[in-house]
Protein backbone atom coordinates (compact mmCIF):
# COMPACT_ATOMS: atom_id res chain seq x y z
CA UNK A 1 0.00 0.00 0.00
CA UNK A 2 2.58 2.53 1.05
CA UNK A 3 4.78 1.46 -1.86
CA UNK A 4 2.11 2.14 -4.48
CA UNK A 5 1.33 5.54 -2.89
CA UNK A 6 4.98 6.48 -3.14
CA UNK A 7 5.01 5.25 -6.71
CA UNK A 8 2.04 7.42 -7.67
CA UNK A 9 3.53 10.42 -5.92
CA UNK A 10 6.76 9.93 -7.79
CA UNK A 11 4.95 9.69 -11.13
CA UNK A 12 3.01 12.87 -10.44
CA UNK A 13 6.21 14.64 -9.48
CA UNK A 14 7.89 13.37 -12.63
CA UNK A 15 5.07 14.64 -14.86
CA UNK A 16 5.12 18.06 -13.20
CA UNK A 17 8.89 18.26 -13.61
CA UNK A 18 8.67 17.35 -17.29
CA UNK A 19 5.97 19.96 -17.86
CA UNK A 20 8.10 22.60 -16.12
CA UNK A 21 11.15 21.63 -18.18
CA UNK A 22 9.15 21.79 -21.41
CA UNK A 23 7.84 25.24 -20.49
CA UNK A 24 11.34 26.43 -19.61
CA UNK A 25 12.86 25.26 -22.88
CA UNK A 26 10.00 26.76 -24.90
CA UNK A 27 10.59 30.09 -23.17
CA UNK A 28 14.30 29.84 -23.89
CA UNK A 29 13.78 29.07 -27.56
CA UNK A 30 11.64 32.17 -28.00
CA UNK A 31 13.83 34.22 -25.67
CA UNK A 32 12.52 36.51 -22.94
CA UNK A 33 10.91 39.78 -24.02
CA UNK A 34 13.30 42.70 -23.71
CA UNK A 35 12.64 45.80 -21.62
CA UNK A 36 14.44 48.81 -23.06
CA UNK A 37 14.21 50.81 -19.82
CA UNK A 38 15.99 48.05 -17.92
CA UNK A 39 18.36 47.68 -20.86
CA UNK A 40 19.59 51.21 -20.31
CA UNK A 41 20.97 50.21 -16.93
CA UNK A 42 22.54 47.07 -18.41
CA UNK A 43 24.19 49.26 -21.06
CA UNK A 44 26.12 51.00 -18.29
CA UNK A 45 28.43 47.97 -18.50
CA UNK A 46 29.10 48.67 -22.18
CA UNK A 47 29.27 52.47 -22.13
CA UNK A 48 32.92 52.77 -21.11
CA UNK A 49 33.88 51.14 -24.41
CA UNK A 50 30.94 51.95 -26.68
CA UNK A 51 29.38 55.18 -27.84
CA UNK A 52 25.68 54.84 -28.59
CA UNK A 53 24.78 57.52 -31.10
CA UNK A 54 27.42 60.15 -31.77
CA UNK A 55 29.65 57.92 -33.87
CA UNK A 56 32.64 58.35 -31.52
CA UNK A 57 35.17 55.55 -31.31
CA UNK A 58 36.18 54.56 -27.78
CA UNK A 59 37.86 51.30 -26.82
CA UNK A 60 35.29 49.72 -29.13
CA UNK A 61 33.42 50.89 -32.25
CA UNK A 62 30.41 53.18 -31.96
CA UNK A 63 27.18 51.21 -31.73
CA UNK A 64 25.32 53.89 -33.69
CA UNK A 65 22.90 51.99 -35.94
CA UNK A 66 24.30 48.64 -34.83
CA UNK A 67 21.01 46.78 -35.20
CA UNK A 68 20.93 45.93 -38.89
CA UNK A 69 24.64 46.73 -39.38
CA UNK A 70 27.08 44.16 -40.75
CA UNK A 71 29.62 43.01 -38.14
CA UNK A 72 33.03 44.61 -38.34
CA UNK A 73 32.14 47.47 -40.65
CA UNK A 74 32.11 50.70 -38.58
CA UNK A 75 34.36 53.17 -40.42
CA UNK A 76 37.86 53.81 -39.07
CA UNK A 77 37.71 51.20 -36.34
CA UNK A 78 40.46 48.63 -36.32
CA UNK A 79 38.62 45.33 -35.80
CA UNK A 80 40.06 41.92 -35.05
CA UNK A 81 40.34 39.59 -38.05
CA UNK A 82 37.68 37.39 -36.47
CA UNK A 83 35.16 40.23 -36.31
CA UNK A 84 35.98 41.50 -39.81
CA UNK A 85 35.48 38.03 -41.24
CA UNK A 86 32.40 37.08 -39.22
CA UNK A 87 29.99 37.99 -42.01
CA UNK A 88 26.85 38.30 -39.90
CA UNK A 89 24.39 41.16 -39.63
CA UNK A 90 23.62 42.31 -36.09
CA UNK A 91 20.04 41.58 -35.10
CA UNK A 92 18.35 40.20 -31.96
CA UNK A 93 19.57 36.69 -32.67
CA UNK A 94 23.21 37.36 -33.58
CA UNK A 95 23.57 39.96 -30.81
CA UNK A 96 22.17 37.47 -28.29
CA UNK A 97 24.71 34.86 -29.33
CA UNK A 98 27.63 37.31 -29.33
CA UNK A 99 26.72 38.84 -25.96
CA UNK A 100 26.30 35.39 -24.38
CA UNK A 101 29.96 34.55 -24.97
CA UNK A 102 31.86 37.09 -27.11
CA UNK A 103 35.07 35.08 -27.33
CA UNK A 104 33.25 31.93 -28.33
CA UNK A 105 31.06 33.57 -30.98
CA UNK A 106 33.95 35.58 -32.46
CA UNK A 107 37.19 33.73 -31.78
CA UNK A 108 40.04 36.21 -31.37
CA UNK A 109 37.70 39.14 -30.72
CA UNK A 110 39.28 42.23 -29.22
CA UNK A 111 36.19 42.83 -27.09
CA UNK A 112 37.57 42.16 -23.61
CA UNK A 113 34.22 41.43 -22.02
CA UNK A 114 33.17 38.09 -20.53
CA UNK A 115 29.58 38.32 -21.75
CA UNK A 116 26.16 38.60 -20.12
CA UNK A 117 25.19 35.21 -18.70
CA UNK A 118 21.65 36.35 -17.85
CA UNK A 119 19.25 35.94 -20.81
CA UNK A 120 16.99 38.69 -19.48
CA UNK A 121 19.92 41.15 -19.32
CA UNK A 122 20.76 40.32 -22.94
CA UNK A 123 17.16 40.73 -24.12
CA UNK A 124 16.90 44.03 -22.25
CA UNK A 125 20.14 45.52 -23.59
CA UNK A 126 19.23 44.42 -27.14
CA UNK A 127 15.80 46.09 -26.76
CA UNK A 128 17.63 49.23 -25.62
CA UNK A 129 20.05 49.14 -28.58
CA UNK A 130 17.07 48.85 -30.96
CA UNK A 131 15.55 52.10 -29.73
CA UNK A 132 18.59 54.08 -28.59
CA UNK A 133 21.56 53.16 -30.81
CA UNK A 134 20.66 55.36 -33.76
C1 LIG B 1 36.30 46.55 -22.47
C2 LIG B 1 35.62 47.24 -23.54
C3 LIG B 1 34.30 46.70 -24.03
C4 LIG B 1 33.15 46.42 -23.30
C5 LIG B 1 32.95 46.56 -21.79
C6 LIG B 1 32.15 46.03 -24.26
N1 LIG B 1 32.67 46.03 -25.53
FE1 LIG B 1 31.67 45.57 -27.26
N2 LIG B 1 33.39 45.75 -28.31
C7 LIG B 1 34.62 46.15 -27.79
C8 LIG B 1 35.64 46.05 -28.83
C9 LIG B 1 37.12 46.37 -28.67
C10 LIG B 1 34.97 45.57 -29.98
C11 LIG B 1 35.59 45.21 -31.33
C12 LIG B 1 35.83 43.71 -31.29
C13 LIG B 1 36.65 43.12 -32.41
O1 LIG B 1 37.13 43.83 -33.30
O2 LIG B 1 36.83 41.89 -32.36
C14 LIG B 1 33.55 45.42 -29.63
C15 LIG B 1 32.56 45.00 -30.50
C16 LIG B 1 31.21 44.99 -30.20
C17 LIG B 1 30.16 44.76 -31.15
C18 LIG B 1 30.32 44.52 -32.64
C19 LIG B 1 30.29 45.88 -33.31
C20 LIG B 1 30.54 45.90 -34.79
O3 LIG B 1 30.73 47.00 -35.32
O4 LIG B 1 30.51 44.84 -35.44
C21 LIG B 1 28.98 44.84 -30.47
C22 LIG B 1 27.58 44.66 -31.04
C23 LIG B 1 29.30 45.10 -29.10
N3 LIG B 1 30.66 45.19 -28.97
C24 LIG B 1 28.37 45.25 -28.09
C25 LIG B 1 28.68 45.39 -26.74
C26 LIG B 1 27.69 45.43 -25.69
C27 LIG B 1 26.19 45.42 -25.89
C28 LIG B 1 28.39 45.52 -24.51
C29 LIG B 1 27.83 45.52 -23.10
C30 LIG B 1 26.97 44.43 -22.73
C31 LIG B 1 29.81 45.57 -24.85
N4 LIG B 1 29.94 45.49 -26.21
C32 LIG B 1 30.84 45.70 -23.94
C33 LIG B 1 34.86 46.56 -26.50
C34 LIG B 1 33.98 46.42 -25.44
From TrEMBL:
Pfam families, sorted: Cytochrom_C
Position of the signal peptide: 1-29
PROSITE patterns the UniProt entry points to: CYTC
Stretches assigned to the Cytochrome c domain: 34-133
Record InterPro entries: Cyt_c-like_dom, Cyt_c-like_dom_sf, Cyt_c_1A/1B
Keyword Heme belongs to the record: yes
GO terms for MF: electron transfer activity; heme binding; metal ion binding
Species: Novosphingobium sediminis
Keyword terms of this UniProt record: Electron transport, Heme, Iron, Metal-binding, Signal, Transport
Coiled-coil annotated residue ranges, if any: none
Native organism taxonomy: Bacteria, Pseudomonadati, Pseudomonadota, Alphaproteobacteria, Sphingomonadales
UniProt protein name: Cytochrome c domain-containing protein
UniProt key word tRNA-binding: no
